[in-house]
């Protein structure tokens, strides 16, 4: 397992707040992992650590899990309690604490982002691997602007046009991660139903299918189709997304979206179960080598404009 060094953190993790940066969520998680290791190396209990910064045991636990922001003063006091005297590493960890408290690049859209999505966006932009299964719609990271606009209009029928357009902007900004230098590996399995449901009309759907064909040409993007002929399968209940971070000490994240929000099961056994389901989908779906032919066939079967 690779252990983050001060040099790693200084050169690779302290980045800006753009859609291509590591983001405050992951910085909090990384800092929490480091603080937990330092505490355990010194055999300091959660209660003792809490006394150091005049906090509860549960707050220390939340800090170490990256579920709450850090105050630089608290981090400095904890580092002293844990006996960390290396000035370079202290400076790096304190800078991480500062940047981990900053706002994510998506905060201008904060009124549109529920708490679960706020955390998810921070993890998505930092992920090394994104695995997705979609039933009803094309995956959001692979949607065209017009398709996204039509899908958002259906999901937010009571919203104003201005709000809908801001949601479209946010979705398009998220897609920048696929075109950065260190782009994540995206592996998507799309149900045939999503390809044959003409969201936005024939012209919009044709452009969306052509966009998917273009996406398959990217070396870091794999698209498979789950055909109707496959029958039932373990994921027929709804969409699944799994995020894997580049840092091996950070856990995989499972996200199960529904109409009004999402559930993110984090028990190791549950996460492993969804990995098993995702791997089953890959086996049951049509091979990726045939995706372009399938998409071209669906395009050919669209009604004439």
Automatic annotation (TrEMBL):
Query: The organism sits in which domain of life?
Result: Bacteria
Domain HTH cro/C1-type per the UniProt entry, residue ranges = 35-88
Q: Which Pfam families match?
A: DUF5753, HTH_31
One of the entry's Gene Ontology molecular-function terms is: DNA binding
Q: Name the chain's protein.
A: Transcriptional regulator with XRE-family HTH domain
Give the originating organism.
Answer: Streptosporangium saharense
């Amino acid at each position: 397992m690779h252990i983050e060094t001060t040099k790693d953190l200084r050169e690779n993790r302290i980045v800006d707040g753009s859609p291509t940066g590591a983001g405050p969520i992951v910085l909090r998680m990384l800092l929490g992992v480091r603080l937990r290791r330092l505490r355990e190396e010194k055999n300091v209990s959660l209660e003792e650590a809490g006394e150091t910064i005049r906090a509860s045991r549960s707050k220390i636990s939340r800090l170490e899990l990256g579920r709450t922001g850090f105050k630089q003063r608290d981090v400095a006091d904890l580092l002293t309690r844990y006996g960390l005297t290396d000035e370079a590493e202290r400076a790096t960890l304190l800078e991480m604490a500062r940047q981990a408290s900053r706002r994510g690049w998506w905060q201008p859209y904060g009124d549109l982002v529920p708490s679960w999505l706020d955390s998810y966006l921070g993890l998505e932009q930092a992920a090394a691997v994104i695995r997705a299964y979609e039933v009803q719609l094309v995956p959001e990271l692979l949607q065209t602007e017009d398709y996204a606009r039509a899908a958002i209009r259906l999901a937010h029928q009571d919203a104003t046009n201005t709000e809908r357009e801001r949601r479209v902007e946010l979705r398009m900004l998220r897609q920048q991660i696929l075109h950065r230098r260190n782009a994540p590996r995206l592996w998507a399995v799309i149900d045939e139903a999503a390809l044959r449901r003409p969201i936005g009309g024939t012209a919009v759907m044709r452009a969306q299918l052509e966009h998917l064909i273009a996406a398959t040409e990217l070396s870091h993007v794999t698209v498979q189709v789950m055909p109707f002929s496959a029958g039932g399968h373990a994921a027929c209940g709804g969409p699944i997304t799994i995020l894997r971070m580049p840092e091996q000490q950070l856990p995989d994240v499972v996200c199960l979206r529904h109409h009004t929000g999402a559930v993110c099961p984090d028990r190791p056994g549950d996460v492993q179960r969804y990995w098993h389901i995702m791997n089953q989908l890959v086996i049951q779906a049509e091979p990726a080598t045939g995706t372009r032919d399938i998409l071209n066939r669906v395009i050919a079967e669209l009604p004439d404009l």
